[in-house]
Amino acid sequence: MAISDWTAFVDQTDARMAEVRKSMPDVAKGFGALAAAATKPGALDAKTKELIALAIGITARCDGCLAYHARAAPRHGARREEILEVIGVAVYMGGGPSMIYGAEALAAFDGLAETSGA
């Protein structure tokens, strides 16, 4: 499915995720703690970790992952040129399906970068 309005998609996904978090608070709390620990700057900075997450989202063909990590990447200083290189690595690792989802990731980045607060 090609998404034409990434902001609307994120809003819809946020609403759905809010319901899941409300319905499974312990799991959601655990996942939130895992996300915070995994993305916290350490040997790798937060931008690098967001770029890795975006690459995994491309290879896993996860629209929600693309949206969330394309929105977060510019908040951590990622530039469009870096997104394109991430897409290249994802295509290398994931083949043709990653090429298609790479195009979706770029569209998500372009559509969400201006609203990311970066």
From TrEMBL:
A GO term, aspect molecular function: peroxiredoxin activity
Matching Gene3D superfamilies: AhpD-like
Coiled coil: none
Plastid keyword on record: no
InterPro entries membership: AhpD-like (IPR029032), AhpD_core (IPR004675), CMD-like (IPR003779)
UniProt cross-references to Pfam families, sorted A to Z: CMD
Record key words, sorted: Oxidoreductase, Peroxidase
Keyword Metal-binding appears in the UniProt entry: no
Taxonomic superkingdom: Bacteria
The Carboxymuconolactone decarboxylase-like domain, residue ranges: 25-107
Protein name per its UniProtKB record: AhpD family alkylhydroperoxidase
Organismal lineage: Bacteria, Pseudomonadati, Pseudomonadota, Alphaproteobacteria, Hyphomicrobiales
